[in-house]
Queue: 3 jobs
Job 1
Amino acid sequence: MESICKLKDLYKALYNFEKKFSEVNGLTINEGMVLCCLKDGKSKSANELCDFVGLSNSRVSRIINTVENKGYIMREMGIADKRQMIFTLTDSGLQKVKEMQAKEIDFSGFAASLTQLMNKE
């Protein structure tokens, strides 16, 4: 039972970190990861984004739609396979990536929570 309580504390620490990240950047961590995957300027397929983010196809599909609605990415049909969608950063998305890279992400609170959690008996 104790491991469930520790897991709850871990989720709470991650939730608090993501909440602060979202307030600072105007994006969730998952949305930020999609932009991070595309920051090299190369187009990526939905499967490549899924592999990078590490979530299910359906979850990443919803994240892609949100980031697309915010105007940070655009989709195009694949050339070889018309069923495949290819995603690229828009100018607005590239600007958002630059803004995020210029900000220092403060992991200290999250790290302190993890340290405290690991030291709990």
Job 2
Amino acid sequence: MEKSASITVRVKPATRKRLDAIALATRRTKSFVVEEALDQYLDVNEWQIKGIEDALAEADSPDAEWVDHEEVVASVRAKVAR
């Protein structure tokens, strides 16, 4: 098991109450609940940032293909009209 590190955060009283309630309901420690929440938040945001960085790299590549805005609009309108 990995050794843990301590951090201190300030939260609104309402957030603290929600944390307490979830910890009690799940019979987990508040530390466990907070770590799970942070892991989920970090996973989503790391995934999103990587996606943005990959898309920017693709857009900046010499092989990038661009489609005129009006072509896209016309294509969507044609699909909607069907």
Job 3
Amino acid sequence: MQPYFSIVMPVYNNEKLLPNAVNSIINQTFSDWELIIVDDGSTDNSSEICDEYARNDERIVVIHKENKGVSSARNKGI
């Protein structure tokens, strides 16, 4: 069954704020969603953080891609 809605989150080198952003979605009372995180070629620990969230929550999907900017990352997620 498809989730009610999808959230696309482009990520690039944002390891410090990433957990707060993802946790704010996870902690919502509405739970019928999927989170598509698009790692746009991060060079910090953002990729690892994204993968850890995906391992722990089946509603989270991570796509890793070469850095081409936020528009490219968003379009990949869509």
